[in-house]
Amino acid sequence: MPHRITIRVYYEDTDLAGIVYYANYLKFIERGRSEWVRDLGIDQAKLKAEGGGVFAVRRVVADYRAPARFDDLLDVTTEYQSHTGARLELRQCVLRGGKLLFEARVTLVCLAGSGRPQPLPAGLIAGLNENITI
Q1: Lowest mean pLDDT: which of 1-10, 77-86, 115-124?
Q2: What CATH number should be reported for the domain holding residue 97?
Q3: Domain range enclosing 22
Q4: pTM for this predicted structure
Q5: pLDDT of residue 130
Q6: Is 75 known to be catalytic?
Q7: Looking at 15, 39, 63, 71, which residue is catalytic?
């Protein structure tokens, strides 16, 4: 079952045509990922401070299907797809009233302080095993 948060579109999120500016969907899904990780019990600031690494976006494949507009309430979903070593694959969607507006396949990597890949944190793997059917 996908993780879900609800956000509202503010005037600052829109362009001159009154629709959500395309790059803001990336911000919306970033918020969704941050809340998903938090709900898995991972404190990202603590993880970094203790040398457990940070998450970085390696790749995003995005599909814009329909526009969102000022004052819309949007659901942002985050769904685990797979993981290997230092890599995590997610599917993220932005919906309005159940209608799919934006969809992305996101690849994250876990990076050490040196900027080199390191294995995904054990706490994340444990959270995935506990909360998600793999």
Answers
A1: 115-124
A2: 3.10.129.10
A3: 3-131
A4: 0.91
A5: 77
A6: no
A7: 15
